[in-house]
Design a protein that fits this description.
By secondary structure, the chain is α+β, with helices and mostly antiparallel strands. The protein contains eleven helices and ten strands.
């Protein structure tokens, strides 16, 4: 596996993607990327893949494994939405409401922010119906519901379920360290209010590799299997994570805010990357190229066009 034009200049990470408009390169995005071979060794490293980053929502499979280890018995789409950054489509909102009801909870106990659906198309429909910002519509509501349900099951405090010192969050902290193979370097607060554990990109790729290779019936394998079986609940009907998990058998994929992405293949190969400036618009092209280097064809998934006057006049392209 080789990549050209990725040398680090003056300590800056390499350019991973560029925006081309009418044949003119108008923007460049730098970042770091790691690819693991099937045996877990580093096959490709661009930029700094050992310094900790906040994986953002790429941490969600680990958080979902934590609620299972706490004893919460979720399966199928219910487990998938516990690991989701869902689009806020009607079927997502309905499932979150059912989960709350099934565990004797209500939306008022959720501590994620009031929000609109993440998907722009769904957001227009939602607003046109007269609906307003709501915690259930927030993309992390499935995760928060699962955290509340696990806490209720164990008799742990519900009002402090997001405190880093809460028993559930301590358990999730241990899961992150176990599956990534490294110590959590820092604990912050994610956009949804949940504790956020910093690990390296190499650790993140190792974690996803751990999930797909875990023993059947283990918490990690159950999460991976649910996400891959119900990808529309992990993301949405118009989201790349959904398309990828449908298109490539056995692939596990989860994006995170600030342009983070992690993927694992069923044979143990894995990748993780972060775009330095957090530009989500380049996630697709970078992921498409990285998978191509791993001989995984994804068709048109990940292609990003640049528009001018409503027509295609360029593209966002990976350059490694």
């Amino acid at each position: 596996m080789t990549a050209e034009g990725t040398e680090i200049v003056d300590g800056a990470p390499p350019v991973l993607a560029e925006v081309v408009r009418s044949g003119f390169v108008e923007s460049r995005h730098r970042g770091s990327l790691v690819v693991l071979a099937a045996d877990g060794s580093v096959e490709l490293a661009l930029g700094d893949v050992t310094t900790p980053v906040f994986p953002r929502s790429s941490n969600k499979p680990m958080q979902a494994a934590g609620v299972l280890r706490a004893g919460l018995d979720l399966t199928g789409e219910r487990l998938a939405i516990a690991a989701a950054s869902h689009s806020g489509e009607l079927f997502h909102r309905d499932l979150v409401r059912r989960l709350l009801s099934e565990h004797g909870l209500d939306a008022g106990q959720l501590q994620c922010p009031l929000d609109l659906p993440l998907d722009p198309v769904e957001q227009e429909t939602y607003l046109a119906s007269g609906a307003v910002r709501d915690r259930i519509a927030m993309n992390c509501s499935g995760k928060h519901t699962a955290m509340l349900a696990a806490s209720a099951l164990r008799g742990w405090p519900l009002e402090s379920y997001l405190d880093p010192d809460h028993p559930l969050q301590k358990l999730i902290h241990r899961v992150v360290e176990e599956v990534s193979g490294e110590r959590v370097a820092a604990v912050g607060t994610d956009g949804c209010g949940a504790p956020l554990m910093a690990i390296s990109l190499t650790g993140l790729a190792r974690a996803f590799r751990f999930f797909v290779l875990a023993a059947p019936g283990s918490a990690e394998r159950r999460v991976a299997d649910a996400m891959r079986a119900h990808p529309e609940y992990v993301a949405g009907t118009r989201r790349p994570d959904t398309w990828l998990m449908r298109a490539v058998p056995g692939l596990l994929s989860k994006m995170g805010a600030e342009a983070v992405q992690a993927v694992a293949l069923p044979d143990g190969r894995a990748l993780a990357f972060k775009v330095e400036d957090g530009a989500g618009r380049v996630l697709g092209p970078v992921l498409r190229r990285a998978l191509g280097l791993m001989d995984v064809a994804v068709g048109e998934i990940g292609r990003a066009v640049v528009l001018g006057g409503g027509r295609e006049v360029g593209e966002i392209r990976a350059v490694f």
